[in-house]
Amino acid sequence: MGAKLKVAGLLAVGALAGAMTTLQLQANARESLAPLPLEELQQLAAVFGMIKSDYVEPVDEKKLISDAIGGMVAGLDPHSQYFDKKSFKEFRESTGGKFVGIGIEMGMEDGLVKVVSPIEGSPAFRAGLKPGDLITRIDDTAVKGLSVDQAVKRMRGEPNTKVSLTVLRKSENRTFPVTITREEIRVQSVRAKMFEPGYAWIRVSQFQDRTVDDFARKVEDLYKQDPNIKGIVLDLRNDPGGLLDGAVAIASAFLAPDVVVVSTNGQIADSKATFKAAPEYYLRRSGSDPLKKLPAALKTVPLVVLVNEGSASASEIVAGALQDHKRATVMGAQTFGKGSVQTVRPLSADTALKITTARYYTPSGRSIQAKGIVPDVWLDETAEGNVFAALRMREADLEKHLQGADEKKDEAREKAREEARQKLEEQFAKSKETPKPLPEFGSAEDFPLVQAFNQLRGKPVIVSKTAVERQAEAPEDKQ
Q1: pLDDT tens column, 87-127
Q2: Rg (CA), the chain
Q3: Which one is catalytic: 313, 340, 367, 464?
Q4: What digits encode the pLDDT tens for the residues 326-367?
Q5: 389 and 434 share one domain
Q6: How many whole angstroms from its chain centre is CA 295?
Q7: Which of left, alpha, beta for 115 (phi over 0: left; psi -120 to 50: alpha)?
Q8: Domain containing 439: what range?
Q9: 214 is a catalytic site residue
Q10: In a domain, 325, yes or no
């Protein structure tokens, strides 16, 4: 059982990422409503009354109603959600690209928070935290045993409040305390660098409010370093999605003007739309087009898009558009398969409803719902093969997911996942250690990235010998 829990913990981040949504923010609710089912509403009122009068202890009426709304929405699909005051605040922080905290990109290693990188200029950066540092305690709480979300929440808080960390720095073989004052952090969702002379790496980790502006600045910097870039890798691995207009913009940066990027279709008129590679389809507010000054060479430079099972939603829109227009070679693993659009409709100043309003389609008319984008070139996670790929959750694995086209149960997929899980548990039981974490994205040890650059340079690529296309999985009929 212990092995199972530890293996499951290693996969939790990927599963969460895949479950995030592409968002199209709108404020106008549908005005016309069908007649209300009076008998069912009377039952709801009766249950409410019984709980109020008969439950073992008093229950807050507002909480009952909030829970009822949440349950109703949760029954639709994995991506529709009712936002109460707290969750709506967290949602706006995630899409806005800013939050109050200490400012680290983090992962988990041996059950501890690992500092992947302090965000430049952040409190953590100024306090001297370094990549590879392990946080063992947050205030008086040991990190071991906490989930990723629990650790994150303890490090976040109100501006100008303090958090005390105990840090293990393996490179210096010492542990030391540090107290950091929280402040508002602006997340950089785009990273970029010259991986080697002539070849650039651009990573988009999520599509947020500031992503397009950050992308434009990073590309300009790359071309200042080398005006004659020979190839670019656009890295969308583990990108859970985000704002739809951000995806349209990033795809537009590489595509010819006015070609179709994505189309959507749903029950209401607003959900039937076609988005093209033009500013009017991705600019949400007045102002200049951040892509206008990008070099013309970006439209023709050889391009590889790197994806994996954690690439979902908005990142799948970008990969699908560039693949359909034959603008890029898509490499990596089959993506998550989230082919639906969610609209956020405010209910009050502090609450909102995020509801699935449309399916989206690539320029050729493909729906990737429950299937994902199939790469042109399959790659393994490491030179030795895949470590976690078969275990990662995909859209088709989620309960109540929207049915994909020609969806059917894939028993071989489920069997492969179970065999992979058992193998990892057996390895852990023998070694008493968790599997070695994958190298950091963008590093020289990043095996898929090295293969992507080999593709651009015309060098041999080590393709996967075991990966095969996974069909969408339909839930079994319940009798």
Answers
A1: 888 788 777 767 889 988 787 788 899 887 787 778 998 99
A2: 23
A3: 313
A4: 999 999 999 999 999 999 999 999 999 999 999 999 999 999
A5: yes
A6: 29
A7: beta
A8: 190-457
A9: no
A10: yes
